[in-house]
């Protein structure tokens, strides 16, 4: 037997010994994030994304998520052009994917013309009148609609939502691996806080700080839940879960021990710039300017240097595990000194991400 033949036989043996990727059987009926039963007739090949941010979720379980798209909304491209640019560098075909809406509205005519076999909507879209109309329209034209939720109760729902996407898109192995990874890191935070029940600091989370007016504070929902998981206390917990406007007097009276600002790259809605593609020094400098106003500068949080910033759109993507770890490190450094979101991001990039995520997604006024 020649060496070439022996090598071929050995290669064939090794390939046969590898476990086959588990295949999903279609038609497939699933329960989506709104509790709706949805039947998907066949493996989706032409997907409509009601929110462009859900491309991030697809990119964690599929090596070429853009190849799945029949059409998508332009909200990620518009709100976070830097993260869009990263996808365009890796997958130039994204430039040719038709836009079907802006994340708030959906063009029914465009959706119908694209001959999609699945639509994925975000929970906040499906909860609106326009979203319900879109679901009804798409389903009447034969396009099944699956609703996903990375926003409401994200700490409890994100892993299950990834598993849902994995089943629907025939990527269960990859989705389950990410969900297990996510669950393990959230469990570490919960377990350690349970072992240290003493209360953490008081916190203000200020969405898109604006020197012209004050202030939109996160409540206990969305990213606000990431305060509570650390055992810390949100000064805006009496507001509706989504948060709301608060006055200077309210903040000064509460005098929070920690201040966290949220924003987007380029300071789209405020002067503070943080998120994909942002240099850490730019993020730190713009955060420093955001707390220069006299009333913020007088707060205990600012006086003590406990000022931090975070990419606001963590509330739309399964990367929110990074926000949870950043909050743990910032708010309870005494029990989370070994938790490092930078290392977690590196592992996500190495193990899961079709497009690596880079930039200053979180920042502290004081460099480590």
Automatic annotation (TrEMBL):
Keyword Transmembrane helix among UniProt keywords: no
Annotated signal sequence range: 1-22
Keywords (A to Z) from UniProt: Signal
InterPro entries assigned: ABC_Transporter_SBP, ABC_transptr_periplasmic_BD
Limits of the Fe/B12 periplasmic-binding domain: 45-339
Protein name per the record: ABC transporter substrate-binding protein
């Amino acid at each position: 037997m020649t060496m070439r033949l022996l090598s071929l036989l050995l290669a064939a043996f090794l390939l046969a010994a590898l476990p086959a990727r588990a295949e999903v059987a279609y038609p497939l009926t699933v329960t989506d994030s709104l509790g709706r039963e949805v039947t998907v007739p066949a493996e989706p090949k032409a997907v409509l994304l009601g929110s462009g941010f859900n491309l991030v979720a697809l990119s964690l379980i599929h090596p070429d998520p853009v190849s799945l798209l029949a059409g998508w909304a332009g909200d990620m491209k518009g709100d976070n052009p830097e993260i869009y640019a990263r996808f365009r560098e890796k997958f130039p075909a994204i430039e040719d994917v038709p836009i079907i809406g802006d994340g708030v509205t959906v063009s029914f005519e465009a959706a119908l013309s694209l001959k999609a076999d699945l639509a994925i909507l975000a929970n906040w879209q499906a909860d609106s009148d326009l979203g319900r109309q879109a679901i009804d329209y798409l389903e009447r034209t034969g396009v099944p609609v699956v609703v996903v939720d990375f926003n409401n109760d994200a700490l409890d729902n994100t892993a299950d939502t990834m598993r849902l996407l994995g089943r629907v898109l025939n990527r269960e192995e990859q989705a389950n691996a990410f969900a297990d990874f996510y669950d393990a890191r959230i469990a570490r935070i919960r377990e350690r806080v349970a072992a240290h029940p003493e209360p953490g600091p008081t916190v203000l989370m200020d969405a898109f700080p604006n020197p012209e007016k004050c202030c939109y504070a996160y409540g206990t929902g969305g990213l606000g839940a990431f305060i509570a998981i650390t055992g810390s206390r949100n000064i805006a917990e009496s507001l509706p879960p989504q948060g709301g406007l608060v006055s200077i007097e309210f903040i000064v009276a509460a005098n929070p021990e920690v201040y966290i600002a949220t924003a987007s790259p380029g300071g789209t809605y405020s002067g503070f710039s943080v998120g994909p593609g942002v240099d850490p020094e730019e993020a730190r400098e713009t955060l420093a300017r955001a707390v220069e106003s006299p009333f913020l500068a007088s707060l205990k949080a600012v006086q003590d240097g406990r000022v931090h910033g975070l990419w606001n759109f963590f509330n739309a993507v399964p990367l929110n595990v990074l926000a949870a770890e950043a909050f743990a490190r910032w708010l309870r450094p005494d029990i989370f000194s070994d938790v490092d979101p930078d290392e977690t991001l590196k592992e996500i990039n190495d193990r899961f991400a079709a497009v690596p995520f880079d930039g200053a997604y979180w920042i502290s006024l004081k460099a480590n």
